[in-house]
Structure of BTB domain-containing protein:
Amino acid sequence: MAPNKAAAEEYPVDIVDLSDDFKSSKTLDLVLDEEHKVYRYWIHLKCMKWQIELRANSFECFAAYFKTPATWSAEVEFEIRAHVTNSVRSEKFTGRYTGSNHVYFRPLKLQDHMVREKLRSMRVEITVNVIKTMNFGMLYDYFDVLPEEENALLKVEDRLIRVNKRYLSMMSPFFKALFYGELGEDKEIYEMKEKFREIITFLRCIYPHRQPVTKKSLDYLLQLADRYQCQPIVDACEMFMCAHYHEYQKKTEKCFSYVEKYKMQRVLRIIVEYVAVTQSPAQFRLQSYYRDLSEKTQLAVLDYMAKNQSRRGKELERRRGVNSHRANIDPIDDQDPPNGRLLGIADPLRNADPRPPQPGYNVPRYGNFRPLVFGHH
């Protein structure tokens, strides 16, 4: 990575307020100088993730959310205010996004102002305002109906996160006991010994905008969900694994550990189907993780293997019957009803006429056909 190229990170604030993710506008205060020539930050507006990239000669905004429908569209208004000496140069423009266009680019002339005024640094304020969105994003502020007196602060790695106590209490018995029960007192700041990146992702998955689960966040989200008794997060992780079953069904040992610890019945069905196809019962019993499984899981796998083997046996018998029936039908004699009197029949026993002969007719097995007529000599 180039030394002057900053990595994308969340815009730093003193207190991370999750209710601000539902807002439609936000202002970023940046300073361009020799050490900071490029800024890359991402913010949440209308519960959507937007990545802002600012240079002295260009501005770029990327709708960085994970899965948007093809009919998604948004209209975003930008205002850039550059503080040049004793004046402020302001510029407004509008970016339009659709399902096929997630990037908006705008050339700027901030570098020209810095050269003209002989400035070593320039303060730049960027206001991003989402005017309207269609078919994606949160349309209203969910926490307007909840009183501000219900807010509390979580202290994680010396950083503060403002959350709503009532909403977290509905999602988790742990938070209900922490805020209103015997685990904690009625105070403004609650300290948590977690990593900030993990706990902020965990909270955004709980909150109504439902930040999607990813491969990187799956493991620690399950650990936090188990620690804080949050079943909605376990369900979200399970649905993510089911949606990506072609990747996770091959990680048999890991998925069985998830099934045993978090009681994932949907994942169990997927893993059982994969194991039943790729292993025999004897091979399954020899696996290193077999003894770590509960008796219920072992019986579920072996029972499905038996049913699958019986089903495969019946399917093979059915196919053998179909194939043998097709092999016994000569393509020349594939008529209704089949008979052995057509030319070109090599095996009259195989192509014998199933109908009994009419009285008065002698049907020889070999040779030419000669009808016998009964009458006076």
Remarks:
- Residues 9-135 form a domain with the Apoptosis, Tumor Necrosis Factor Receptor Associated Protein 2; Chain A fold (CATH 2.60.210.10).
- Confidence is low (pLDDT under 50) at residues 332-346.
- The first strand starts at residue 9 and ends at 10.
